[in-house]
Amino acid sequence: MFTNLIESSSHAKEFKRRGSFLLFTTATYVLLFVITGVVSIYAYDTHLEQQSLEIVTLLPPQEIVPEGPEPTRPIERPRVTRENPRSEVPERTIAMLGVDHPEVVPDKISAERNTVPPLPPGPVRITDRNWDPPPIGSGGTNNGGRQIIQPSRVVIDDDPPPAPAPTPVVPKIVKVSQVLNSRALDLPRPPYPQMAKLSRVQGTVSVQVLIDETGNVISAKAVSGHVLLIPDAQRAALRARFSPTTIGGVAVKVSGVITYNFVLP
Question: Is this prediction's pTM over 0.70?
Answer without folding.
Answer: no
